[in-house]
Amino acid sequence: MKITNKRAVFFDLDHTLWDFEKNSALAFQVIFEELDIKVSHQEFNKHYSPINAKYWKLYRDGEITQQELRYGRLKDTFLLIDFTADDILLERISQQYIRLLPENNNLFEGAVEVLDYLKPKYSLHIITNGPDEVQERKLKNANIGHYFDTITNSELAGCKKPHAGIFEYALKAANVDRKESIMIGDCIEADVQGAIDCGMEAIFFNEHNLEAPASIMQINHLLEIKNIL
């Protein structure tokens, strides 16, 4: 099904274009070697991913601060694998992680090809809950920043997805009507339902083929966007 009434495409960044899991694992591998942490980074990452997702939901919902997000996800993961990490070590790991994470630039398969396809036809934009400085470095190091006319983050908008305010801020920055816009992201709650509640259409990037309502447009690979837009 081709959608023909759009002028602007909004993307989430992490887990949608930028391969967070792969880049995060690489960052932890370097950190554990540099700090001589005697833990398998593969074992750590297996537990870190779902814990990180839980903490991001708490952060989106306004139940914890960014600082609590950064430390809590590390502390809980180390507790789960029975490794003692004191506050000093957690501080060092957290700082190293924020520094190293954007240095990796793995994108999902098809990301650059689909951006090349979309760029001549639409204005392209980012809406992210991630912190400004980190997201800017990710876009720059992955060499995709030039595709996007605007980058809206929760710090600029003063609220996080799925709050309508961040979508309204992004639409205003892009100077485009919500009916002429579509959002693409990996989180049904934050990206898809958030956009729909704001009056936009949305596409769920369902990389892991999770169960989703039949009413939601979804893709399993980024190149499927070419069949829709």
From TrEMBL:
A GO molecular-function descriptor: 5'-nucleotidase activity
Alphabetical keyword list: Hydrolase
Keyword Magnesium: no
E.C. no: 3.1.3.5
Pfam families linked: Hydrolase
Enzyme class, first EC level, given as a word: hydrolase
NCBIfam families from the UniProt entry: HAD-SF-IA-v1, YjjG_YfnB
Protein name: YjjG family noncanonical pyrimidine nucleotidase
Organism: Flavobacterium suzhouense
